[in-house]
Design goal:
three-stranded antiparallel sheet; single chain
Length: 184
């Protein structure tokens, strides 16, 4: 719920990140370094480093919002250190299409410090749309027979635990994948 003093549609980055709680899902826009909400992501990192909150976020993104360096989602690639208040990483899970522009986030996935799921960019966009319309998910043939297909592989860079973000179904004698976000 948005506090009464923050119902204005224009708020500072600091006020915006105060609305983010531990275990929330944060959907980040931007394609590579274009359109990424860098000030908000940076402020979220500062809050985590100062207060140890929020923790265990799920990131949802499509076009790898980052600059191959320190900007974009790289701001959120933080795990607790001895000098910080946090006991858990800022990000617990990342669901995205492109990790190349976010090397620090990708490094956390490769080192098995976070869960990281790789899905097609178009399917991520349609998953967001399905969530907004309260649909059961995005139904498509994209990904059948590939590592995305639960019958043939696992859609993760590193899979720390089973995830129900997608599954396969047969409808009218044809196979489809259903991508869904679940509860946000």
């Amino acid at each position: 719920m948005i506090p009464a003093n923050r119902k204005n549609k224009v708020v500072t980055a600091s006020d915006a990140v105060e609305l983010v709680c531990s275990n929330d899902t944060v959907c980040v826009s931007g394609f590579v370094s274009q359109g990424s909400p860098d000030a908000i992501l940076q402020e979220l990192r500062f809050r985590y480093e100062k207060e140890g909150q929020p923790q265990d976020l799920t990131l949802l993104f499509g076009g790898g919002p980052g600059d191959w360096g320190e900007r974009g989602l790289n701001h959120l690639a933080r795990v607790p250190s001895d000098s910080e208040c946090a006991t858990s990483p800022l990000v617990k899970r990342a669901i995205g299409a492109h990790y190349g522009q976010t090397p620090e986030l990708a490094a956390l996935a490769i080192s098995n410090k976070i869960e990281a799921w790789t899905l097609p960019l178009g399917s991520i966009s349609r998953m967001i749309r399905a969530q907004a319309t309260h649909s059961p998910g995005h139904i498509t043939t994209v990904g059948l027979g590939t590592y995305l297909d639960p019958d043939t592989g696992v859609s993760s860079i590193i899979c720390r635990q089973n995830n129900s973000s997608y599954n396969s179904r047969s409808v009218t004698n044809s196979s489809f994948l259903i991508y869904r976000l679940g509860e946000l």
